[in-house]
Amino acid sequence: xxxxxxxxxxxxxxxxxxxxxxxxxxxxxxxxxxxxxxxxxxxxxxxxxxxxxxxxxxxxxxxxxxxxxxxxxxxxxxxxxxxxxxxxxxxxxxxxxxxxxxxxxxxxxxxxxxxxxxxxxxxxxxxxxxxxxxxxxxxxxxxxxxxxxxxxxxxxxxxxxxxxxxxxxxxxxxxxxxxxxxxxxxxxxxxxxxxxxxxxxxxxxxxxxxxxxxxxxxxxxxxxxxxxxxxxxxxxxxxxxxxxxxxxxxxxxxxxxxxxxxxxxxxxxxxxxxxxxxxxxxxxxxxxxxxxxxxxxxxxxxxxxxxxxxxxxxxxxxxxxxxxxxxxxxxxxxxxxxxxxxxxxxxxxxxxxxxxxxxxxxxxxxxxxxxxxxxxxxxxxxxxxxxxxxxxxxxxxxxxxxxxxxxx
Length: 408
Ligand SMILES: Cc1cc2nc3c(=O)[nH]c(=O)nc-3n(C[C@H](O)[C@H](O)[C@H](O)COP(=O)(O)OP(=O)(O)OC[C@H]3O[C@@H](n4cnc5c(N)ncnc54)[C@H](O)[C@@H]3O)c2cc1C
Hints:
The chain is an alpha/beta fold.
């Protein structure tokens, strides 16, 4: 068996894995592996945007919205860490070259999504995730002490010792040369969600919960694996493959759900689980396979500008959302549970860390609030890097950083 030695090995090259690698101290010899190519991750697909603290007065309202959406099953300390970490993360992304949309006076433009009491979401049209992930990937690839290795799936943990002395000493992976043992002082699992296990999901099919399965094999604690979010509005199609998401921000900007008779049947801005349940009920009532999303109240300039990607994709599928309501159906979208960890990404096994969608520090509770996920992945992956290094990271949510995103 081939063997390699690294300081840190990170499984996953979405925003969580990349931002963790970026925040490790200089010269930390780091290997980032991913299952397919680097572009094949859900981070690239994020449409609506990323929540941030636009104004100190919004702090309590945002925390309250997150707790309400999560059915108060959230870890409040994690929610506070996420909210308080958001200005530093936003600043870091701007410094890395992410060009969030701005209002004419040059300030960041904030949009709103379901279950948010205020606009607090920064965005880059409807392809925010690609803008953020591409910037992070370029920054990581520029670090001479980090290697990003594509088509290199992690297959297992390498564990040594007995009982409480057990520790993770590396990952077993596979690459073009066959199986390889990647030995490391610290391993980070950032393998994203589980949508690939579902028939209908907005996730990439390759995201199949591999890290969670490896943890369960070795007795590493996981939790709330049944807390799975179903997104209300994916584009209805008979074709197999990844379901195309129609972002919640469309409803935030005025699109409404209608039944076969053209009438509304629910509050479109309720939390996702509530809206998905209402759609299911409506479909049962009508005996239909979808409901429709009506964009009539959204200005044509907003559809063609802010929602250009959604507009074009629907058009390519034969639906002109400017001309008629588009058929939509709920689809699996996000895992709130995952590998149990503390607010620094530490799992129940020494040497093993986790961040991003595959991790569960309890921040989302039972139902994630829209656009909290990119942010959560970024805030907690930076903290994870901090825990691994035992030193202040180069980009840290903390006192020396802006208190709100206004300064960005
Ligand atoms: C369509 C869509 C739209 C979304 N819109 C938003 C939004 O607007 N705002 C928001 O906040 N969130 C949004 N989300 C959620 C958000 O994008 C994700 O939760 C977040 O990006 C997860 O980041 P991650 O780094 O944890 O995982 P991912 O970005 O999914 O990356 C997972 C990585 O793990 C790798 N991997 C998987 N298995 C293995 C393995 N066995 N070995 C090695 N590597 C492996 C993959 O190759 C990939 O590189 C959206 C999600 C989807 C699907």
